[in-house]
Amino acid sequence: MSQLSTSTPGSLSDAEREWPQAGGEVFAPIKSNPNLKGALAEFPSWRALAAREPAWVEELRRMADREAPSARKTRLERLLTGYERAREAARELLSRRERLTASLEELTARMALGFLYDRERKLFAIGYDVTERRLDTSYYDLLASEARVVGFMAIARGEVPLKHWAALGRPFGMAQGEPVLLSWNGTLFEYLMPALFQELFPGSLLAYACRRAVEIQRDYARRRGIPWGISEAAFSALDAYQIYQYRAFGVPGLGLKRGLEEDLVVAPYATALALAVDPVAAVMNLRRLARYGLRGPYGFYEAIDFTRERCPAGERGVIVYAYMAHHQGMSLVSLANALLDGIMRRRFHADPRVKAAEPVLYERVPTEPPPAILPGGEGPPPRILP
């Protein structure tokens, strides 16, 4: 590490300069041996590395034993030592993973979701008031909500009946001449967060709703000349302790809540979530956000606030120089899904309980969606700088 940290960009350390010659000397006899060449064609998995010693390692040992003392013999021995270290590390990694898996299984088995469920309303309460010892009087009552992933898990685990899913509201509005499933706040988080784990099956209502949410957000941002990706986030207002404030921001016409047109806050993690729906547009938007200065040393900063009242004179937007762990975490999971063929979704759906509950995710788009009355319509455009 010290070699890497002291090297100037573009320069090579002594070890890096030596490696091509060392590699050539060590691997020349390996490349000429068809058995070894085939064995080394694929890097072994952690489990295979930990389980048994492959035949090619023994062949390398015989080569090292036959070799007279030389630089090549030393390097062969170093290669074998490195293999043994990697094998031991693989065993330790798998052991740690098994312990972690057991701990997580125990935690999830003890996690009770049913006490938050109101059996009369067939809905989950927002929370539980410990002081008053009662459920909150507000409920998650919309399908277009991040809370649907909890409801789905509770159904899959047998804690709540299937009728909970049917009880979730499905209000529709019209945008760009097409129906849109409405959420409360009009954030991308409400639509796309569950897609970190749940499949968006082609032709399903949820796949359609997520695609339309991204389209409407992109159009809304285009008409205002800013990057897209509006969601709940920290914004540029500070409290008495100089801490950024936080709340939900959304797009009018996508959310039922009043006053969504009054603020304009763009959060990069919302674009990262959209990789599940439109990866090309999401990557282009992330690059645009980087040009606005939102790419920091630990990832993208929390947000950029374009609301006019909070922008100092002459500034186009105010960057919120903060990192929020849950937003960075969602971005990392979404990136992993995009690069590794939906790996977290595949893992989630590999659980037999999830497989059993999967049919609810295939719900189709209604042929004649019932209209919903929006509170106040889209209203005037946000107050932002020209």
Strand content: 5-15%
Low-pLDDT windows of residues: 1-27, 374-386
Helix-residue proportion = 40-55%
The count of DSSP E runs of length 2 or more, i.e. the number of strands, is 14
* SSE pattern, N- to C-terminal: HHHHHHEEEEEHHEEHHEEEHHEEEEHHH
Overall shape: globular
Going across the major beta sheet, what is the strand order? 1-2-5
- Can you summarize the main beta sheet? 3 strands, antiparallel
End-to-end separation in angstroms reads 48 Å
The overall pLDDT average reads 84
The number of helical segments is 15
What is the radius of gyration? 27 Å
Structural class: mainly alpha
List keywords for this structure.
single chain; 386 residues; mainly alpha; 3-stranded antiparallel β-sheet; 15 helices; disordered C terminus
Quick overview:
This protein is mainly alpha-helical. It is 45% helix and 11% strand.
Describe this structure in words.
With 386 residues, the protein is mainly alpha-helical. It has 15 helices and 14 strands. It has helices spanning 2-6, 14-32, 34-39, 46-51, 55-66, 71-110, 148-156, 163-167, 188-192, 205-224, 268-273, 279-291, 325-339, 343-349, 352-357; strands at residues 117-118, 123-125, 128-129, 134-135, 139-140, 172-175, 178-181, 233-238, 244-247, 265-266, 295-296, 299-300, 303-305, 318-320. It has a 3-stranded antiparallel beta sheet with strand order 1-2-5, with no helix packed on it. Strand 3 and strand 4 form a beta hairpin. The longest helix has 40 residues, at 71-110. The protein is globular and about 80 Å long. The two termini are 48 Å apart.
